[in-house]
């Protein structure tokens, strides 16, 4: 049975085979038996490289942060994670520059960004916050909800998410829809930040 360490665009942590393109964390979420016992710890939710400076980790070591895995960066952003400022320094700088272009010069650091994202990604302690928006206004790289499932807006189409890749395509709809990606991140993508997307999207 795979570990419960894959994150969906809804932010849920599920069991699935494979790891995806990115790793990340949102605190210590597991117990001594490597079982998920909480949704999040703190407001610093990050998305990291799966390899960095030869570091090795034993997954879900007691007392250490819980290693989470994402299909791609678009998935991580939809869940409310941002690029890590250490292992993905160049990506974080691109993200921060686009953030400042649409949100102004404040916040200048990760703490301000994390506070804003924490307010936007959750309703309560473990319920994904969504909102309505015009589909025509959404940039590529944003997730919406269709028939209860997560779909990526990409190149004029919708791509159906699965833990292993994008498995279905639909025409992009018109009108108003439910958006998963937090609004501050949607604005940041629209301002020029292009998220990493799984190869199955093409």
Instruction: Summarize model confidence as the mean pLDDT.
Output: 93
**Terminal CA distance:** 30 Å
Helix-and-strand structural type: alpha+beta
Taking pLDDT < 50 over at least 5 consecutive residues as the criterion, the unreliable ranges are none
Structure description:
This protein has 202 residues and is α+β, with helices and mostly antiparallel strands. The chain has four helices and twelve strands. The protein has a six-stranded antiparallel beta sheet. Helix 2 (89-103) packs across helix 4 (183-190). It starts with a strand and ends in a 12-residue tail after the last helix.
Concise overview:
The protein is of the alpha+beta class. It has helices spanning 73-79, 89-103, 110-121, 183-190, and strands at 4-7, 13-15, 22-25, 46-48, 68-70, 82-83, 131-134, 143-146, 149-154, 157-160, 168-171, 176-179. The model has no long low-confidence stretch (mean pLDDT 93).
């Amino acid at each position: 049975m795979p570990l419960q360490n894959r994150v969906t665009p809804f932010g849920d942590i599920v069991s699935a085979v494979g790891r995806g393109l990115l790793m990340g964390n949102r605190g210590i979420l597991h117990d001594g038996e490597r079982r998920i016992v909480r949704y999040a710890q703190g407001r610093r939710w990050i998305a990291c490289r799966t390899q960095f400076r030869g570091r090795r980790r034993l997954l879900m070591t007691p007392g250490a942060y819980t290693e989470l895995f994402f299909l791609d960066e678009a998935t991580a952003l939809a869940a409310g994670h941002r690029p890590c400022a250490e292992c993905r320094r160049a990506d974080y700088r691109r993200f921060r520059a686009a953030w400042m272009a649409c949100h102004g010069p404040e916040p200048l650091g990760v703490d301000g960004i994390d506070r804003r994202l924490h307010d936007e990604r959750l309703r309560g302690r473990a319920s994904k916050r969504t909102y309505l928006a015009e589909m025509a206004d959404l940039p590529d790289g944003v997730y919406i909800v269709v028939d209860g499932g997560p779909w990526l807006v990409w190149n004029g189409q919708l791509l159906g998410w699965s833990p292993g890749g994008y498995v279905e395509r639909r025409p992009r709809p018109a009108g108003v829809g439910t958006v998963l990606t937090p609004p501050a991140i949607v604005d940041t993508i629209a301002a020029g930040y292009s998220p990493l997307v799984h190869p199955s999207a093409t």
